[in-house]
Amino acid sequence: MKFHKPAFLFFTLFLLGYTSYIGLKNVFRYNEFKIAYKVQQAAYLEELRLNKNYKQQLLFMQNPDYWELQAKKKLGLINPGEHVVKIIGLSEDSK
Questions:
Q1: pLDDT score of 52 more than 70
Q2: pTM
Q3: For burial by CB atoms within 10 Å, which of 61, 81, 88, 93 has the most?
Q4: Is 90 exceeded by the pLDDT of residue 89?
Q5: What mean pLDDT is reported for the chain?
Q6: Phi, psi (degrees; rounded to nearest 5) at 23
Q7: Burial zone of 72 (CB within 10 Å; 0-12 exposed, 13-18 middle, 19+ buried)
Q8: What pLDDT does residue 55 have?
Q9: What is the separation, in whole angstroms, between the first and last Cα of the chain?
Q10: Domain segments of the chain: what residues?
Q11: Within a 13 Å sphere around the CA of 21, how many CA atoms are in the beta-carbon half?
């Protein structure tokens, strides 16, 4: 059997080029997935933070003192026996 050096060289270069192409393509795909993963992970951590805040707010809202404070702030509630003192000061513009 006769050895064909040009054909072997062409086949070797083709195989080397093809494997390099596939390798580079996979490296770029991996980088894209890595970036997408980091974005998703950041969004997930933000959602966890928000969830923790909402749970704390729910626990705080179960306290009757919270609702009394809200009623005092927003509705002007005054309990029997309480006295309200409102301090009116000079504004910053008039000084």
A1: yes
A2: 0.53
A3: 61
A4: no
A5: 89
A6: -60, -45
A7: middle
A8: 96
A9: 106
A10: 5-75
A11: 6
| Secondary structure in 3-state letters for the chain | CCCCHHHHHHHHHHHHHHHHHHHHHHHHHHHHHHHHHHHHHHHHHHHHHHHHHHHHHHHHHCCHHHHHHHHHHHHCCCCCCCCCCCCCCCCCCCC
Find all residues with CB under 8 Å of 8, minimum gap 6, and list them. Answer: none
Which residue has 């910053």 as its token pair?
A: 92
Residue type for 69, please? L
pLDDT at 38: 97
- On whether the CB atoms of residues 46 and 52 are closer than 8 A, the answer is no
Write out the two tokens for 41: 């992970």
| Confidence (pLDDT) at 50 | 97
For residue 52, what are its two tokens? 């923790």
